[in-house]
Amino acid sequence: MNKVFNRRTLVVAIEVPILLLNSDRRDRKREMGLGIFTSMLLRRTIIQRSTKLLSPQSPIFNNSFVRPIVSTPELKNPEAAQADPVPDSPPLPPRSPVGGARVHFPNPEDAIEVFVDGYPVKIPKGFTVLQACEVAGVDIPRFCYHSRLSIAGNCRMCLVEVEKSPKPVASCAMPALPGMKIKTDTPMAKKAREGVMEFLLMNHPLDCPICDQGGECDLQDQSMAFGSDRGRFTEMKRSVVDKNLGPLVKTVMTRCIQCTRCVRFATEVAGVQDLGMLGRGSGEEIGTYVEKLMTSELSGNVIDICPVGALTSKPFAFKARNWELKGTESIDVMDAVGSNIRIDSRGPEVMRILPRLNEDINEEWISDKTRFCYDGLKRQRLNDPMIRGNDGRFKAVSWRDALAVVAEVMNQINPEEIVGIAGQLSDAESMMALKDLLNRMGSNNVWCEGNGMQTQADLRSGYLMNSSISGLEKADVFLLVGCQPRVEAAMVNARIRKAVRSNLAKVGYIGPPTDFNYEHQHLGTGPQTLLQIAEGRHPFCSAITNAKKPAIIVSAGLFEREDKDAIFSTVEAIAKNGNVIRPDWNGLNVLLLNAAQAAALDLGLIPESNKAIESAKFLYLMGADDVNLDKLQGDAFVVYQGHHGDNSVYRANVILPAAAFSEKEGTYENTEGFTQQTLPAVPTVGDARDDWKILRALSEVAGVKLPYDSLMDIRSRIRIVAPNLLSIDEREPATFSALIKPEFPHSMSSTPFKAAIENFYMTNSITRASKIMAQCSAQLAKK
Amino acid sequence: MFARQAAQRLLEIRQIFRQSPQASRSFSTALNYHIDTPDNNPNIRWEFNEANKEKAKEILSHYPSNYKQSAVIPLLDLAQQQHGGWLTVSAMNEVARIIEVAPIRVYEVATFYSMFNRSKVGKYHLLVCGTTPCMIRGSREIEEALLKHLGVKRNEVTKDGLFSVGEMECMGCCVNAPMITVADYSNGSEGYTYNYYEDVTPKRVVEIVEMLRKGEKPTPGTQNPNRIKAGPEGGNKTLLSEPPAPRCRDLEAC
Amino acid sequence: MAFTLRGLKVSPNSASLEEARSRVFDFFKTACRSIPSIMEIYNLHDVVTVSQLRSTIASEIRKNAHIDNPKVIDLLLFKGMEELGNITEHAKQRHHILGQYVLGKQGLVQDSSTKDEGISPFLKSFYETNYF
């Protein structure tokens, strides 16, 4: 009998920690209820076991029934529950923090000790009771509290009991004090939560079956875990008018529980003060008061932070349930940030894209372009290999014929006249294959669009974000050179905004007038201002020299300028004067625009001559849609290998359909040199093939067989060229050496800097094919 | 068993009574969101007049320069007085501009307080107290009398634009219940008054309305001629004599 | 099954090769006459034309051109009529027709293997699918 009991506890004790470990922070939305439930289960079972083992007179030795784990008897009989002593002897196993939460002690002396359910926990001073509980491995239910937003303390769901406090305290707003004895599992705490939940459900509609949040709803989960099984409210439920927040966010305001997370997110992170809490009491509602669309590039994140179904995704509305979806952890390629995303797919269709937590890159936000570009993956796709006939129309052919035609043309043309351009969404493997193929054909005119002509690719520090994206948070002065982070890299902009809010960082901006969602000084529009700062004639110089951690961010849009070398050496002069580069801090950054850029420069995809396109007779475009083909000769043969029928297809002679980022495995390096991999979430459409496979097959047909048959083989080839591209999920910082940098004789032209991105919502072939992005740019993009 | 049936029955009866036409009481004069109308939209320019600009400056001087937003309530009040008792969107935007916050932060405050009217009110805005003591002493009848006399509904303005009737919460005059308040916006922010009329009767409120219509100023305070302020009807009944001196301890007993 | 057989009369054996031959022609004509209604039933207008179907039927018949035993021809005719009956009675689905008579037995892959001499296994599987 005793054996039976032990096995049971053992199973629970083993299974539950696994569950807890697996429950990722970002998946908390889905797993929170379960996580809490299991942790409670675990705790109680262990306590039970230990008490029972300690006292041989315990009923377990007398009757064969294991006491069922139910909460109600304790609720009805608080004395009995309190009488159950919590043993302080060794049997308590150490518990892991919720979701692997890291505890960082800024100052070791400031550590204080509190007791959570009897477990001693060491936490830094200034932590709240809720955070202390999290460190102790107890997940407190919450709605309004969000670790990245300010504390509101208005949902009251996180009530816990604190010894010697007459009332339950809201743990999210209560600072933990030394020696505090926090109890999260007492009848008082349970009753408090149950009561709060009853109030929250009072005005919440019972429309879970038609609610898009169903299945990933905090309110649903927590009412299952902490709520009562009945309510006492018999009046009419209130109803609230829905708001129009634009083409991305759907509102069903009747479901709102007034947690104000969205208001705080909009104000603090997104930096658009549009949302507010209007009215009072039972008439309270979230809204914009005047009819106003949410014009933020981060607005989609309110969908994630909304704990109920009040704010849901408009394009995703009524499309799928979250439990039908297959999640694939992948990487975003819409900009050079490389935000970590989860691609949720059902069958062959991408249903939605959600952020994944990555503290170093995107925290837990993603930009709207990343989140809503996915419908572009279903439109304008290239299905079959096609050859343009004499009548100018494309005709679908087999791969065999298409490759034979391309190989034949390629072999007839002089090697110097062969040019290859990789697109902005290309992965490192296919760029490697493209370069190898063209090199074997005898040409070295291969580059990645956006990198311009004669870009130096010798020093990695010259094209990377050296202070790293998370490092920008620590900076206290920013100088943005031709760089509009809000449209170029929304996640980097969020970091700068964070620095502006927390360190009161000053931001100086040189470039065309543009929108910022934080305080900034517009210093000028062109290189003259840059020169003034370099020569110390500008008032902003003192800000840079006096700064503790100054950061200069240069946009990769300047790569396209003729005088970029001069600009870069001027920026370096500023960096030198302002002591921006120190042993512990490298504040000289380049913000790249495209996902492929960093890897392309690492692999050495740079053109040999400035006039490559003009003299080209054979142009191989690997998804390159933003190159200017006006100067291309009329008789040049253009091969377009890509996944969308976009700009370049109009000029192409042969189309080879390729896989999009959601359909292939590929390595991408982001703007700070962080290497990550995409994973295929859905199958390729039609007769498309992976990019590198097409190049490999073409090489064989053309008689210059590339020596790799698998991704592994290509990667071992990459190891020779750029080994840093193989250290996945690691950031390889550039070793800076300003001294060996050659001097450039060019002088700067006086042309003002141009905006690198015209339309935030349409920057590549996927977003240009997307209907949602088209709606956004029509309604939201500011003219 | 019977007890449960009785409880069920009681619940049903309560349900029937609950279906009153006044399903949700609205204290504020407008919705919690704005709908553009010809006389209330963000395109209309609105600013404080010269005198009130000085006043606004004076109000702002009460607060530290980095906490200008603290002046939001006094400024909104000033704007409301100037604008004939209600706040347009542009007035709120102007206040937001002065205190340097996003407009939504001002909207939040203006929607929170029911004394800020966001739809048009009459020059004399009559507010009937509807809290328990006044209600017991007949505030419903008073409101009914007012509405019937003026021929309007609650929160509706009479055709001549002179009067509107609203409901408000307790103003602390329970001893003289029932009471109404008259917010006088007829003379802008200079002649603005906010007077309580207490111990009113359905007949008396109609008289007050008529006096206001004629431009007279009825005396505020209790309308019962037999009372002095909050004193009992017909003069004091207790504490008639001079209050005795404080008791001194028996010195001789020591 | 029963209802398909009900409509089929088992005709007596052909006495000679001539008779069998004329029966085949009769069958071909019947089949050709039913093509329009087949196209209607299976909604084939956008994938195939009448003449294509007709030539498919002819080639199906010609496949057995070398047979000179009247008994065998009778048997094949019976099978053909059964098939035709099935098709006209909508006992089949659209993809059956598409697979058997529109695309042909070899399906979508029209390439013969003779061209693949001397190419690497990578290229061979590349031509077939993206997933290998």
UniProtKB/TrEMBL annotation, chain A:
Key words of the record: 2Fe-2S, 4Fe-4S, Electron transport, Iron, Iron-sulfur, Membrane, Metal-binding, Mitochondrion, Mitochondrion inner membrane, NAD, Oxidoreductase, Respiratory chain, Transit peptide, Translocase, Transport, Ubiquinone
Pfam families xref list: Fer2_4, Fer4_NDSU1, Fer4_Nqo3, Molybdopterin, NADH-G_4Fe-4S_3, NADH_dhqG_C
One Gene Ontology molecular-function label: NADH dehydrogenase (ubiquinone) activity
Every 4Fe-4S Mo/W bis-MGD-type domain range: 325-381
GO cellular component, one term: mitochondrial inner membrane
PROSITE patterns assigned to the protein according to its UniProt record, in alphabetical order: 2FE2S_FER_2 (PS51085), 4FE4S_HC3 (PS51839), 4FE4S_MOW_BIS_MGD (PS51669), COMPLEX1_75K_1 (PS00641), COMPLEX1_75K_2 (PS00642), COMPLEX1_75K_3 (PS00643)
UniProt-listed InterPro entries: 2Fe-2S_ferredoxin-like_sf (IPR036010), 2Fe-2S_ferredoxin-type (IPR001041), Mopterin_OxRdtase (IPR006656), Mopterin_OxRdtase_4Fe-4S_dom (IPR006963), NADH_UbQ_OxRdtase_75kDa_su_CS (IPR000283), NADH_UbQ_OxRdtase_ferredoxin (IPR054351), NADH_UbQ_OxRdtase_Gsu (IPR010228), NADH_UbQ_OxRdtase_Gsu_4Fe4S-bd (IPR019574)
UniProt subcellular location: Mitochondrion inner membrane
Compositionally skewed regions (Pro residues) per UniProt: 87-96
GO terms (BP aspect): ATP synthesis coupled electron transport
EC nos: 7.1.1.2
Keyword match Iron: yes
Catalytically driven reaction(s): a ubiquinone + NADH + 5 H(+)(in) = a ubiquinol + NAD(+) + 4 H(+)(out)
Major localization listed first in the record, in broad terms: mitochondrion
SUPFAM superfamilies hit by this protein: 2Fe-2S ferredoxin-like (SSF54292), 4Fe-4S ferredoxins (SSF54862), Formate dehydrogenase/DMSO reductase, domains 1-3 (SSF53706)
2Fe-2S ferredoxin-type domain boundaries: 110-188
Region Disordered, residue ranges: 77-99
Cofactors demanded by this protein: [4Fe-4S] cluster; [2Fe-2S] cluster
Domain named 4Fe-4S His(Cys)3-ligated-type: residues: 188-227
The keyword 4Fe-4S is assigned to this record: yes
Family: Belongs to the complex I 75 kDa subunit family.
Name under which the protein is recorded: NADH dehydrogenase [ubiquinone] iron-sulfur protein 1, mitochondrial
UniProt source species: Nepenthes gracilis
UniProtKB/TrEMBL annotation, chain B:
Region ranges (Disordered): 214-254
The UniProt record lists the keyword Metal-binding: yes
Entry-linked CDD domains: TRX_Fd_NuoE
Cofactor-binding details, from the entry: Binds 1 [2Fe-2S] cluster.
Keywords recorded for this protein, A-Z: 2Fe-2S, Iron, Iron-sulfur, Metal-binding
PROSITE patterns on file: COMPLEX1_24K (PS01099)
Cofactor(s) needed by this chain: [2Fe-2S] cluster
GO biological process, one term: mitochondrial electron transport, NADH to ubiquinone
UniProt key word Iron-sulfur: yes
Chain residues that bind [2Fe-2S] cluster: C129, C134, C170, C174
GO molecular function, one term: 2 iron, 2 sulfur cluster binding
GO cellular component: mitochondrion
Homology family: Belongs to the complex I 24 kDa subunit family.
PANTHER family (UniProt xref): NADH DEHYDROGENASE [UBIQUINONE] FLAVOPROTEIN 2, MITOCHONDRIAL, NADH DEHYDROGENASE UBIQUINONE FLAVOPROTEIN 2, MITOCHONDRIAL
Official protein name in the record: NADH dehydrogenase [ubiquinone] flavoprotein 2, mitochondrial
Originating species: Nepenthes gracilis (Slender pitcher plant)
UniProtKB/TrEMBL annotation, chain C:
Family, per entry: Belongs to the complex I LYR family.
Keyword Mitochondrion set for record: yes
Any single Gene Ontology cellular-component annotation: respiratory chain complex I
UniProt source species: Nepenthes gracilis
Membrane topology: Peripheral membrane protein
Keywords carried by this UniProt record: Electron transport, Membrane, Mitochondrion, Mitochondrion inner membrane, Respiratory chain, Transport
Biological processes per GO annotation: response to oxidative stress
Subcellular location: Mitochondrion inner membrane
Main localization of the protein described in the UniProt heading: mitochondrion
Name by which UniProt lists this protein: NADH dehydrogenase [ubiquinone] 1 alpha subcomplex subunit 6
